[in-house]
Design goal:
This protein is α/β, with parallel strands linked by helices. The chain folds into 2 domains: 218 residues, Spore Coat Polysaccharide Biosynthesis Protein SpsA, Chain A (Alpha-Beta Complex), CATH 3.90.550.10; 196 residues, Hexapeptide repeat proteins (UDP N-Acetylglucosamine Acyltransferase, domain 1). Helix content is 17%, strand content 33%. It contains 8 helices and 40 strands. It has a 17-stranded mixed sheet that branches. Strand 8 and strand 9 form a beta hairpin. The termini are far apart.
Length: 448
């Protein structure tokens, strides 16, 4: 669609959201509303995209990145005034596709069909419409006896003859630019002082311009104007995500109580139990069991893992790992294969080696733990000295007795042992013991 430019109207204040965050930046299944609209627009093949944003638009920049130019509506004066702010960026375009920024369910295929119909019919204006069960709060499409669209009547202006109309304005338009900009400049303000884009429909009819329409499904054109609608659309997206995963071989015990973000990848033969939340850019490999009551965020989980009633954040979990219940794997942690994490264990910014076991009630922070290490219940790495974090190193095949306190920085050597309740304040050599508070080092040949 090289002769089209795309414009997203995203400058609305969204007062009904009752939030300091702009409406289109509220998230649905892990992404801002605006990104769904942008992705559908990009999917049409349109190269040049403009987003009309409010005066305070610093929050938009990291989301739009390099996908869109910005046109700023300094003062909110309605959708018609918003579109006019993009006039200087569209001088070479023959046609413009305009979208409301709060239509996260709109499909690229529908937009392509709208653009194709606009061109093939040689229309001056083409509207996307939908027939809905409850048209309340939507602008009604009014047609004459010849079925030509003559105007759009907003809810506040509808009379008895309009109330029963169930064909509504979806919020997507194709315009020929040959008449658009002069027409926008000629719009008269409403009683509120705003200039409405929908007034162009009646203006086009009055000057005998050709107006066409394309109808789509009701669900696809759902907008988000308040927190209730946000929750409604989010549920639709979550259901779609779960159904797509189940079609690919993932077992989801109860989709209604499962929350999976749109950027999550889950492989077949994994089972997701109720009240599990998987978000961010997370990847769950095959033959895993997630939940119930688990939270996985921005993490990678390898095959054959079990995560029970636990939280994993910004961490990497390798093959055949068991975590939980009631444990917390925090940012920067790396659990290698065959690790066993019991209940009430917290791990932060630490590497846990192959086959290592942490039974229960442990805190491991800023540590490098080797392979086949046993960490007894109640073990704590005391990693903060009051000024900065220090690291603890525990080498392969070590045995850390219950209730051991390791005062970092400290190293426990290969196949070394700490006694129950010991406080380790200095390094323990390979094949040695540390016993007591503070620990005494007992050297013996335990290498065989």
């Amino acid at each position: 669609m090289s002769n089209f430019k795309g414009i997203i109207l995203a400058a609305g204040t969204g007062t009904r959201m009752r939030s300091s965050l702009p409406k289109v930046l509220h998230t649905l299944s892990g992404r801002p509303i605006l990104t769904y609209v942008m992705n559908s627009l990009v999917g049409t093949g349109i190269q040049d995209i403009i987003t009309v944003v409010p005066a305070k638009h610093h929050r938009f920049k990291p989301i739009l990145n390099k996908t869109s130019q910005l046109a700023v509506q300094e003062t909110p004066k309605g959708s018609g005034h918003a579109l006019l702010q993009a006039i200087g960026m569209t001088s070479t375009a023959k046609n413009i596709l305009v979208l409301n920024g709060d239509m996260p369910l709109i499909k690229k295929e529908t937009l392509i069909s709208l653009m194709t119909h606009h061109q093939s019919s040689e229309a001056d204006l083409t509207l996307l419409t939908a027939h809905v069960r409850n048209p309340k709060s939507f602008g009604r499409i009014v047609r004459n006896q010849d079925n030509r669209i003559i105007t759009i009547i907003e809810e506040s202006e509808a009379n008895e003859s309009h109330i029963g109309i169930n064909e509504i304005n979806a919020g997507a338009y194709c315009f020929k630019t040959s008449w658009l900009w002069d027409a926008l400049k000629s719009l008269k303000p409403a009683k509120s002082g705003e200039f409405f884009l929908t007034d162009l429909v009646s203006l086009a009819y009055e000057v005998n311009l050709k107006t066409e329409s394309l109808s789509t499904e009701e669900q696809e054109i759902l907008g988000v104007n308040d927190k209730k609608e946000l929750a409604r659309v989010d549920k639709i997206l979550r259901t779609s995500i779960c159904e797509d995963l189940m079609a690919k071989g993932v077992t989801i015990i109860d989709p209604d109580t499962t929350y999976i973000g749109i950027d999550v990848s889950i492989e077949q033969d994994t089972v997701i139990y109720p009240n599990t939340h998987i978000s961010g850019v997370s990847k769950i490999s095959s033959h895993c069991e997630m939940g119930p009551n688990s939270v996985i965020a921005n993490s990678s989980v390898g095959p054959n893992c079990i995560i029970r009633s636990s939280t994993i954040e910004s961490a990497i979990v390798c093959n055949n790992v068991t975590v939980g219940p009631y444990s917390h794997i925090r940012e920067g942690s790396f659990l290698k294969s065959d690790v066993k994490i019991g209940n009430y264990v917290e791990i932060k910014n630490s590497s846990i080696g192959n086959g290592t076991k942490l039974g229960h009630h442990c805190y491991i922070g800023d540590s490098d733990i080797g392979s086949n290490v046993n960490i007894g219940a109640g073990t704590i790495t005391c990693n903060y000295d009051g000024v900065q974090k220090q690291r603890t190193i525990i080498k392969d095949n070590a045995f850390i007795g219950s209730d051991t306190k390791l005062i970092a920085p400290v190293i426990v050597g290969i196949q070394s042992i700490t006694g129950a309740g010991s406080v380790i304040t200095k390094d323990i050599p390979d094949y040695a013991k540390g016993v007591g508070s503070p620990a005494r080092i007992i050297k013996e040949d335990r290498s065989s």
